[in-house]
Structures are given as C-alpha cells and as structure tokens.
Amino acid sequence: RVKCDSENNGGETLLCGFQTSSVLSDSAREKTIFIHGKLDDQDAVVILEKTPIREDTLTDLFTGSRLKLEMRNDIYSTYWLQAPPHLNEIKTTVVCPATEKHVKKYQRQESFLVEESGTDYESITLPYIQRQSFSVQWVYNILEKKAEAERITYEDPDPEVGFVLLPDFKWDQKQVNDLYLIAIVHKRNIRSLRDLTSEHIPLLQNIFQRGKEAILKNFNLPASKLRVYLHYQPSYYHLHVHFTKLGYEAPGCGVERAHLLADVIQNLQSDPKYYKTRTLYFPLRADDGLLGKFKEAGRL
Amino acid sequence: RVKCDSENNGGETLLCGFQTSSVLSDSAREKTIFIHGKLDDQDAVVILEKTPIREDTLTDLFTGSRLKLEMRNDIYSTYWLQAPPHLNEIKTTVVCPATEKHVKKYQRQESFLVEESGTDYESITLPYIQRQSFSVQWVYNILEKKAEAERITYEDPDPEVGFVLLPDFKWDQKQVNDLYLIAIVHKRNIRSLRDLTSEHIPLLQNIFQRGKEAILKNFNLPASKLRVYLHYQPSYYHLHVHFTKLGYEAPGCGVERAHLLADVIQNLQSDPKYYKTRTLYFPLRADDGLLGKFKEAGRL
Predict the structure, then answer these.
(1) A3-106 matches A111-296 in fold
(2) Integer Cα distance of A235 and B258 in angstroms
C-alpha cells in the first residue's frame, strides 16, 4: 500500500526517495516542471512550480539575501540572489499512485517549425487534408442554427460575404480581459489562408469591419483593443477569423501561427496570389500526421 | 557618484539599502516583479525573476529540501518545498541610476493597437524618434567590445552584413527551453523594419543563416526549433533580430509586434519598398509619447 501517504511526519522528506524517470514537460517562462517517476515502487507524477514574488516579503527578502554579481554594463547590472528558503518556496503537487492517463496528460508534445512553399502545399498538405476529410459538421451545425444558436453574438447572413460571430469555447465571457470570439464564414469550401485570393477581399473586409462593430456594441471594446487574425495551419479547414483582446496572450497568437487580418487584406490587394505562392511557416506537433508527411518528403 | 556600483565585494549586500517606493508591475504567472525605489539616494529599478526549474538539479533538490504538507485528497497531495538557496536562485537586475523612462518602461500599462501607414511613419513616427534621440550607447559598447564581450556567442565582423549574436538579458542560459538570443547588426543607422529595402536582403539572409548555424553549434538546437523575428516598434532603434525557442512564449512574440525574418526577406524580394509603403500595426502603451503623437494627429 501507498507508502506515498507517508507516515513520516507530514511528508517532510517524502521526495528523498523519489526516482525520476523523465521530465514530462516544463515551462521556463512559468517556472514549472512536471516529472514522472517512482515513489516507493509506485508510479508518481510530481509537479513543481515556483511561487509568485510577493510585495509584502520584499523588505525581508532584500535584507536576508545574498547577491552574486553576474554582469555589469553601464547603468545595468545583474545578480543571482540567494534567498532564505521560507521566503522562496516551491509549490509541490504529488500524484501517487499515478495512472498512465496522468502521465499522458502532463506530457508535452514537442513542436517543429515547418517551411511550406506553394508547391509543398499542393503536393503534401492539400492531399493530406483531402485524404483526412476532417469533419466540419459541427461548423455547419452552427451556420444552420442546429447548434449553439443561442451563443451567437452577431450574424451577417449574406451567403457571399456573411459570417457568424460567437464566443470561443475558451472564453467564459465573465470578463472582457480574455475576450475571444470566432467569426465563421457562411461561404463553404474556403479551407484556409492558402485558398484566399483577391476575390475574397470583400468577404475579409466585411468580417473585419462588422466584427469590430459588433464587439464594440456588445462588449464595449474598441478596435484599438483587438487582435484580429487567422491561423495557419488552422485547427479546422473552414475559414474562420479570431478576435482576441490585445494584451491577452491567447494561445495561438504567436507570430509563428497567426496572420493579422489587416495584413492578409493588404497582401492580397498588392498581390492577388500572395497566399498561393508564398512560403509559409508554422509549427506542427510531433504527433501530427502532417509532420510525418513533411518528413517523408524530406522537407524537415 | 554611483554607489550602486558598490565597492562592497561584488555587491553581495547591495539590496539591503534598497528602499521600495512602488511595485511597477508583476506577474504571478511568470514569477516576476518590477520595483521602483532608491539605492543610496539614487532612483533605481530592481527586477526580480525566479529561475526556471532545472532537470539537472532535481536530485539535489529532492534530497536537500524540506516539505510542508498543505493538502491531501485521495491520490493528490500538495506541499510547500523549501529548497537550499543555491538551488533556487532569483535572477536580479538592477538599473541604477534609473531615469523616468526606465520607470515608465517597466510600469504596467494598457496598450492600444496603432495603425501606421507609410505616410504616418514619415510624418509622425520618424520625427518623434529623431526628436527623442534615444541613446544606443550600450549597443555600441557591445559592438565595440567595451562591454559584455565575454557574453558574445558568435560574431561576423563584416561591416556590411556582419552582426554580433549574444544572449538576451532575459535568458539565464542554464537551459535551452527559454533560449533567447539577439543579433545586433554592425551597420549603423538602420533604425527598424521601416528602413529596410531590398538592398538589405544580403544582411538579413546572413543573419538568418549564420545565426541559425551558431545556435545549432553552441546550443544544439536546429532551425526547426527556432522562431526568428524582428519587433516593430522595436525597443531601441538600432536594427536587431530576435532568436527564441519555438514553444517558449517569449514576451513580444505575438503577431501584433513580431515579424518573422523569413517573411521579411520574402516580402522585400517581391517588393523592394514593402516596409516603406505598407500599413503596419503595433501596440503602444498608454504612456508612450508616440501614442500621444498619433492621438494628436487624429489617427486613434
């Protein structure tokens, strides 16, 4: 039975016996690490996260710590600060015994940046998308009001330039700080950025203009507070546009995957085939079938 | 003169005398805090950031630490871990004497998305940059090896296409997960993306190619793991390129500020004046003088 439950006064030395098997994932930005290993012969996952720096401990921190100089240049200098342990704790979560599901849940998938020329799209990506025939039935359900009808924020029903605007699932709509809406076009068979040409400019301008107006009206957020963009690759192949609040670091708003709608419109205005001919860069996860196709083709 | 420069053996107790005036900003997610205060009667900004958790120290961390039980529920339990100080350092940056500009830079501020046409750049942004005449002396110190020479990862000394590659201050170089390097060009008087024309393609290609090679050689990270980009607006007006690890959500890698170097090169190849004529979008903080200029001009 679970020795992890540790009779040793509150588990003070519990982790001395922890045998690390592998790091499942970590984040240098968030100062977290997820570790898989053994605790008394049982599978366990240990999660460490450094604690936020608290204003009310600063005085004690500054007087009780030692600094080691690292670098000095002009008015800038950097140090390593060694703090008293009680002012610099690490939040520790132990899951024991852990199942395979726990291990998978915390495992990070590595990503690789793929370089896709116009030709690569035709010969690798497009056939892959077509073969997979990913279902977008759930998108059609929304467009036809068979599902989520009550969630719709705004609709322009025009079959050529119209769209449905609704909150993304990630947004709980409790606060505007992490506002996230999606505009889904009524027109079918535009799979992604790659299918766009100058003939779609009126559609894109309509989404840009009316989407911003609807968000101002419904959430009181002006255009200067919005980041409006497409993903490439998208997560489903029916054209849609993301509206997120500027300053909210929404997943997928990085330069390696997002394309500002305003840039897309300008690029199509000056070159009708911009997105047919350009080399586009995007990340793919290690377990993505499309990555396998790029590897087979010797493109990675 | 600057007592901050501290004769007290490498500044070991430098911060004992630090008087906090206010917390400029902090992030519970990133475990950072930016503090404004006084160091020996001089204005100073102190930045604290907890360090990422390193796999290679886990064994020592687990055997050398004490745990305090916080909560136990079924297979889940949480603890506070008190680590030996040398295994749990806090990266500390001191700016002293700090100007009002430094204080503003680190103060949390709302941002607004600005739309800058080629004409706006000429009539609003460029005159503003020229009037400010921001000092880039610290950049010249690096290029001339008067500072940080030992931090240089790679250099191509060519005056036309050469550059210096070195770790960004934000990166402690202890792990590759949050790799962040900056390539600073030797050529002077290229302020930003807006100054680039097709004549700079050899420079940009050289940075792209040799930068990637140097990172592969020094940090064993292939190009498919890198996000290589410029900022617009940049934080200083001497051309530089950011290299960060794909998957690391580096500050400023969002689509609203970052421009992939590969895209910049392609755009200049097809239109030598792409960045002179395009409307560019970027966020400006509420207290940014440039935002005031755009407001005055009725452009926001």
Answers:
(1) no
(2) 22
Q: Where are the domains of chain B?
A: 3-93, 109-296
A9 touches B: beta carbon within 8 Å: no
How far apart CA B257 and CA B229 sit, in angstroms, is 10
State the amino acid at position A19 in one-letter form. Answer: Q
CA distance A115 to chain B (A): 9
* Exposed / middle / buried, residue A39 (Cβ in 10 Å: 0-12, 13-18, 19+): buried
| Count of residues making up chain A | 300
- With a CB cutoff of 8 Å and minimum separation 6, the contacts of A12 are B66, B67, B68
- CATH number corresponding to A111-296: 3.30.428.10
CB atoms within 10 A of CB B267: 23
pLDDT, tens digit, 9 for 90 and up, residues B83-124: 999 999 999 999 999 999 899 889 887 899 999 999 999 999
Is B240 noted as a catalytic residue in this protein? yes
CA distance B53 to A150: 45
A1 touches chain B (CB under 8 A): no
State the nearest Cα–Cα gap between A150 and chain B, in angstroms: 31
B109-296 belongs to which CATH class?
Answer: alpha beta
DSSP letters spanning B157-178: --TTT-EEEEE-TT--SS-GGG
Domain at B3-93: CATH code: 3.30.200.40
Give the mean model confidence (pLDDT) for residues B198-205: 98
Domain A3-106, what architecture? 2-Layer Sandwich (3.30)
ipTM for the predicted complex comes to 0.77
Which of B16, B18, B53 minimises the CB distance to A31? B53
Give tens-digit pLDDT for A218-276: 999 999 999 999 999 998 999 999 999 998 888 899 999 999 999 999 999 999 999 99
CA distance B160 to chain A (A): 26
Of chain B residues 159-178, which have a CB less than 8 A from chain A? Answer: 169, 175, 177-178
Of B66, B259, B300, the CB nearest to A224: B300
Query: Sign of the CA dihedral B61, B65, B68, B69?
Result: positive
- Contacts of residue A9, defined as CB under 8 A and 6 or more positions apart, other chains included, come to none
Q: Would you put residue A83 in left (φ > 0), alpha (ψ -120 to 50) or beta? A: beta
Token pair belonging to A78: 């950097």
Question: In A, which residues are within 8 Å of B270 by CB distance?
Answer: 271
For β-strands B90-95 and A180-185, DSSP reports them as unpaired
Report the chain A residue with the minimal C-alpha distance to residue B24. A55
Residues 169-228 of chain A whose Cβ lies under 8 A from any Cβ of chain B:
223-227
Cβ–Cβ gap A112/B246 under 8 Å: yes
